[in-house]
Every structure is written in structure tokens, then in C-alpha cells.
């Protein structure tokens, strides 16, 4: 076996694991890895901030399903990555962050930029490890990819002391391959029990979480739902798991990102089959109201996730894809395909009578009108990226999604600034796909330096900014406290002119103040971005006091008259 620089072995592992693009910033303590990387097939995108690099790797991972990679040097490079690691851990995104480090013998001497990044990162990673010996290099990286992909996916941090990076190891890539990843299958008895419970339910719902998308289980979900004619709801992370124009689509329940008719349908349900959902508090609201009157089946790949928020009536441990496939097979074995009964028709009635209005012609522009135009202009294959704030809430309420991995959102962590670098990662993964970042004015400013990266590398995408001129979500949250403190970022009063900012980066931009101009502006941005191969901004000025649903929607919505008691929803006879 040939002895080679251990960093060349690492790069060989990255290539064989399917990594074609990495994001990072070189520095003195990580240069041996960069020296090996320069002779590889891997494209390196030099970002302006390590947090931006992690979010770009995150976006690349979400849209490809593979493990994203971000690289930085020692000290603050690693600490700058912590927010990105936390975001990936919270949303189950497989990612590897690689940091340089001072020499092993200097770590206890307060060497320049020497910090114990392994311990700092441990709470926000699945595995945080420092490479101790050059001979371990290929195997530590192989294990990192396995851990990142296994079970509930998540991030790994690998810290590389520079003296270790300079070492050599015995390695032959022809004799090596990615480690297998276990795909846990449910027990047959649990599958039968779940199908039994579905059969007894009169008003069942399937709740598709992000795990359905991560597990590439959307086809199996649709097969089960259509065979039994069970309506399907999605969580925010599950948007795209089920097409929103499907007759069985039942909306979204929640306290912020939700549909009114989805909340109403949920309140009328008597059983919920939740697959790959973690019952986040922005979805459930008051647990007593959320659980009252309904039975829960919880399917999750991570055993300790079951019972974490509340105890389900049945827990099923298994990967979403084989579990839904097994349930569909069991249902097909027991019964012929079902026709839509009274319960699916009731859900359709709620959808037809409780949809929120979005056809406003007001000036200033009302946010629902923005998303109406977005829905009408962009095709189903467009990939949308959005982060956190009022604009995310409006997006969840009004944007329609039809395909998996086309609606990307940072769910639990909610870091401002996520959208721009994440959109770059998506576009690097799929250069021919249209990518749209829906941003808020304040969030945009968190990592706006990454626009320079997109301009430098000619990474084109459209940015739709919902600008209400100040910290709208924070002000909305302050209302119960009868205060308006420190929300004084006003457009035109010391704030940023986003159009001029984009132009300073060499990128086109327009500001829109009339709803009649929205469609034309989106068409212009799409064409201009493709022609110039640059990010293009459409800044939409919306009313300052525009509000979004806050508080406990599930327990404040008016109760709807329930259906009369039904016979069993499914005919199990031959």
C-alpha cells in the first residue's frame, strides 16, 4: 500500500462520498488540506464568513440529500461555524465542518487562535472529534460521513491540528469505500398495529414531517394516503412531502406557519399518524388542546424522539421510507383501494371555505399579495429558500409547494441571514434550477456580504425581499408588554438602501411599491438573473403594521360543528 500525505487521503474520501463542492475560507492552520484540495475534482467556493459557509453547505445538503462540507482555519473560524452546526443539528441536516488547529504540543500554551473547538461544538453536533494521528485521517472521515447520514442525520465537526495535517498515511482509494448506513425497518407487529388503528379511525390524518423528505419517502407516503384515502397534512419542515394541489392535501396546522382550514381539519380529526415529525412547539401550541380527542401514532427513525414531547398511543421506530412502504403493503393486502368518503370531502369543504384572502390591491402592499404573485409566476420545480421572521410566517401560510426539496427553511434554530448563503448552496448543487430566496430586510443584512461571493462566482438566483422597514416580528411580540423598545431600524432614516447596496456589488435590483408591478418585477428578475448570471433583488415595500398569526391558533380557533359519527372509514372486506 502506498504512503501518501494524509490530507490527500482525506480529499480522496470526500470525492468518493459524492462531495463535488465545498465552502470555506483558507487560513494558515488549514493550508495542508487546501494544498491537497487544489488537485482534486472538488470545487471550492470561498465565502466571506464561516457562518455563511456553513449555511451554504447546509443548503447544498438539503437539496441534494448528501453531506455538505464547510472548511475553515483555527480559532474564530470554528466559533463562527457554531450557528451553522446548531441549525443543521436542529433540522437533521448531514454536514461536516472541518477546522484547522494549532500544533498538538501548543494547545495547552494558549497558542495563537488555539481554542478547544471540539468541546465548544460538542452540544451542537452528533460527533465532535480532533484528529490525533495522521494514520487515522481517512478512517475518521469515513466514520464522520457514516455518522452524519445515520439515524436522525446531523452535523459532525473534525478538528485538524496542523502537525497532523502534515503527516502521511498508508492508503489506497481502490481498496476503500463509504461505510454502509443502516436503514432501520419497523417490526411487522408495529406496522400491523398502526394499520389496525388507521382502520378503526373515522377521521384520520397523516402528518408528514421533515423526516419524510429527508428519508426520500414521498412516493411511499402518497401510495398509502391514496390507497386508504387518508388526508395528509405537512409540518413546515415537511412542505413538499405531499403536493399541495392534491385532493387529499389537508393543509398545515400550527400557531404561526399554518392554514386556517388546516387547523380546522386537525381539530376535527380523531387519529394522527405522524411520520418524521418532532412535534415542535410552533406546530403543536398548547399540548392539551393539540392532543385532546385524538389518538397518535408516532413514526421516527430516532428511538429517543418518541415520547420526547408527549407519549403517543403507538410508537414505531423505523426509517420513513420502509415504514410507509410496509404500511402501504399491509393496507393493500387487507383491502382494495378506497374511494374518497365523507371525511376527505369534509377536508375539501374546509379548504374551499376557509382559505385566506390574498388578492389585495392596497398600497402599501399587503404581504399575502406578494405570495399570490410568487405562486402564480414560479413553476413547481423552483426551489425556495427562506429563514425566520414575519416573512417566513407569511411564506408558510401562503406559499404553495408541490415537490420535495423545493422548499427549504431553517426550522428550529431560525438563524437570521441563512437564506442568501443557503440559496448559493442550492444553486451550486443544481445550476439549471431556478432558485428564489425569500428574505426580510433585517435578515438580509446579517450575511449580505455573501452577495459578493455569488457575484464573484456567477451564482444566479432571485431575491424577493419583504421589507416592512423595521423589526416587525419583534414589534409584534412586544405588543402584550405594551412597549415599543429598540425597534428603530427605519428605511430612509439611517437604514440601508438595498437597491444601491446590490448595485455596489454589481448586481441588479428594483424596489416595488405597487401590487400591480409585482408580476413584471418577478419576470424581470428571473430573466435578468439568467442573463447576467448574478443574484438579482426585488425589494417589495409592504405595509409596516402588517401582522401575522401569532399565539395559540389551535386553542383559540372557533370549534367547528363535527361530522355525525361515521362507520369505519375503511372497508376491510374482500
From TrEMBL:
<dbReference type="InterPro" id="IPR012001">
    <property type="entry name" value="Thiamin_PyroP_enz_TPP-bd_dom"/>
</dbReference>
<dbReference type="GO" id="GO:0005948">
    <property type="term" value="C:acetolactate synthase complex"/>
</dbReference>
<dbReference type="Pfam" id="PF02775">
    <property type="entry name" value="TPP_enzyme_C"/>
</dbReference>
<feature type="domain" description="Thiamine pyrophosphate enzyme central">
    <location>
        <begin position="191"/>
        <end position="326"/>
    </location>
</feature>
<dbReference type="GO" id="GO:0030976">
    <property type="term" value="F:thiamine pyrophosphate binding"/>
</dbReference>
<dbReference type="GO" id="GO:0009099">
    <property type="term" value="P:L-valine biosynthetic process"/>
</dbReference>
<dbReference type="GO" id="GO:0009028">
    <property type="term" value="F:tartronate-semialdehyde synthase activity"/>
</dbReference>
<dbReference type="InterPro" id="IPR029061">
    <property type="entry name" value="THDP-binding"/>
</dbReference>
<protein>
    <submittedName>
        <fullName>Tartronate-semialdehyde synthase</fullName>
    </submittedName>
</protein>
<comment type="similarity">
    <text>Belongs to the TPP enzyme family.</text>
</comment>
<dbReference type="GO" id="GO:0050660">
    <property type="term" value="F:flavin adenine dinucleotide binding"/>
</dbReference>
<dbReference type="Pfam" id="PF02776">
    <property type="entry name" value="TPP_enzyme_N"/>
</dbReference>
<dbReference type="InterPro" id="IPR029035">
    <property type="entry name" value="DHS-like_NAD/FAD-binding_dom"/>
</dbReference>
<dbReference type="GO" id="GO:0000287">
    <property type="term" value="F:magnesium ion binding"/>
</dbReference>
<dbReference type="Pfam" id="PF00205">
    <property type="entry name" value="TPP_enzyme_M"/>
</dbReference>
<dbReference type="InterPro" id="IPR045229">
    <property type="entry name" value="TPP_enz"/>
</dbReference>
<dbReference type="InterPro" id="IPR011766">
    <property type="entry name" value="TPP_enzyme_TPP-bd"/>
</dbReference>
<feature type="domain" description="Thiamine pyrophosphate enzyme N-terminal TPP-binding">
    <location>
        <begin position="8"/>
        <end position="119"/>
    </location>
</feature>
<feature type="domain" description="Thiamine pyrophosphate enzyme TPP-binding">
    <location>
        <begin position="388"/>
        <end position="540"/>
    </location>
</feature>
<dbReference type="GO" id="GO:0009097">
    <property type="term" value="P:isoleucine biosynthetic process"/>
</dbReference>
<dbReference type="GO" id="GO:0003984">
    <property type="term" value="F:acetolactate synthase activity"/>
</dbReference>
<dbReference type="InterPro" id="IPR012000">
    <property type="entry name" value="Thiamin_PyroP_enz_cen_dom"/>
</dbReference>
<keyword id="KW-0786">Thiamine pyrophosphate</keyword>
Amino acid at each position: 500500500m502506498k504512503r501518501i500525505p494524509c490530507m490527500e487521503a482525506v480529499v480522496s474520501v470526500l470525492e468518493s462520498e459524492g462531495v463535488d463542492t465545498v465552502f470555506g475560507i483558507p487560513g494558515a492552520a488549514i493550508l495542508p488540506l487546501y494544498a491537497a484540495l487544489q488537485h482534486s475534482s472538488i470545487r471550492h467556493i470561498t465565502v466571506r464568513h464561516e457562518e455563511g459557509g456553513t449555511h451554504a453547505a447546509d443548503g447544498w445538503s438539503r437539496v441534494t440529500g448528501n453531506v455538505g462540507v464547510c472548511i475553515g482555519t483555527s480559532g474564530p473560524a470554528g466559533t463562527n461555524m457554531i450557528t451553522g452546526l446548531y441549525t443543521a443539528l436542529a433540522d437533521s441536516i448531514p454536514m461536516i465542518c472541518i477546522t484547522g488547529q494549532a500544533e498538538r504540543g501548543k494547545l495547552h500554551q494558549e497558542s495563537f487562535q488555539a481554542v478547544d473547538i471540539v468541546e465548544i461544538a460538542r452540544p451542537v453536533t452528533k460527533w465532535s472529534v480532533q484528529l490525533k494521528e495522521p494514520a487515522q485521517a481517512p478512517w475518521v472521515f469515513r466514520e464522520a460521513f457514516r455518522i452524519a447520514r445515520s439515524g436522525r442525520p446531523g452535523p459532525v465537526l473534525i478538528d485538524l491540528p496542523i502537525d497532523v495535517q502534515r503527516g502521511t498515511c498508508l492508503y489506497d482509494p481502490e481498496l476503500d469505500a463509504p461505510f454502509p448506513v443502516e436503514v432501520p425497518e419497523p417490526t411487522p407487529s408495529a406496522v400491523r398495529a398502526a394499520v389496525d388503528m388507521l382502520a378503526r379511525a373515522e377521521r384520520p390524518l397523516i402528518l408528514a414531517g421533515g423526516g419524510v423528505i429527508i428519508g426520500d419517502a414521498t412516493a411511499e407516503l402518497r401510495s398509502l394516503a391514496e390507497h386508504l384515502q387518508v388526508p395528509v397534512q405537512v409540518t413546515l419542515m415537511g412542505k413538499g412531502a405531499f403536493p399541495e394541489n392534491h385532493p387529499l392535501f389537508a393543509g398545515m396546522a400550527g400557531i404561526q406557519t399554518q392554514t386556517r382550514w388546516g387547523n380546522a381539519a386537525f381539530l376535527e380529526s380523531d387519529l394522527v399518524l405522524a411520520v418524521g415529525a418532532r412535534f415542535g412547539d410552533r406546530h403543536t401550541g398548547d399540548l392539551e388542546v393539540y392532543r385532546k380527542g385524538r389518538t397518535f401514532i408516532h413514526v421516527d427513525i430516532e428511538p429517543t424522539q418518541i415520547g420526547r414531547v408527549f407519549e403517543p398511543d403507538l410508537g414505531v421506530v423505523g426509517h420513513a421510507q420502509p415504514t410507509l412502504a410496509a404500511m402501504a403493503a399491509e393496507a393493500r393486502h387487507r383491502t382494495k383501494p378506497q374511494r374518497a368518503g365523507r371525511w376527505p370531502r369534509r377536508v375539501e369543504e374546509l379548504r374551499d371555505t376557509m382559505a385566506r384572502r390574498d388578492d389585495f390591491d392596497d398600497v402599501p402592499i399587503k404581504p399575502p399579495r406578494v405570495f399570490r404573485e410568487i405562486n402564480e409566476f414560479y413553476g413547481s420545480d423552483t426551489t425556495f429558500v427562506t429563514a425566520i421572521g414575519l416573512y417566513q410566517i407569511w411564506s408558510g401560510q401562503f406559499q404553495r409547494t408541490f415537490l420535495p426539496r423545493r422548499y427549504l427553511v431553517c426550522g428550529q434554530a431560525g438563524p437570521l441571514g441563512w437564506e442568501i448563503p443557503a440559496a448559493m448552496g442550492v444553486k451550486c448543487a443544481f445550476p439549471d434550477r431556478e432558485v428564489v430566496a425569500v428574505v426580510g430586510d433585517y435578515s438580509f443584512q446579517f450575511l449580505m456580504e455573501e452577495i459578493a461571493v455569488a457575484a464573484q462566482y456567477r451564482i444566479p438566483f432571485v431575491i424577493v425581499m419583504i421589507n416592512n422597514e423595521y423589526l416587525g416580528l419583534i414589534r409584534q411580540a412586544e405588543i402584550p408588554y405594551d412597549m415599543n423598545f429598540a425597534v428603530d431600524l427605519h428605511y430612509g432614516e439611517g437604514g440601508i438602501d438595498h437597491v444601491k447596496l446590490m448595485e455596489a456589488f454589481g448586481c441588479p435590483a428594483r424596489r416595488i411599491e405597487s401590487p400591480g408591478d409585482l408580476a413584471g418585477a418577478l419576470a424581470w428578475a428571473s430573466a435578468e438573473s439568467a442573463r447576467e448570471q448574478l443574484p438579482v433583488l426585488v425589494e417589495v415595500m409592504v405595509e409596516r403594521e402588517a401582522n401575522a398569526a401569532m399565539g395559540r391558533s389551535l386553542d383559540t380557533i372557533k370549534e367547528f360543528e363535527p361530522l355525525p359519527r361515521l362507520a369505519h372509514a375503511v372497508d376491510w372486506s374482500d
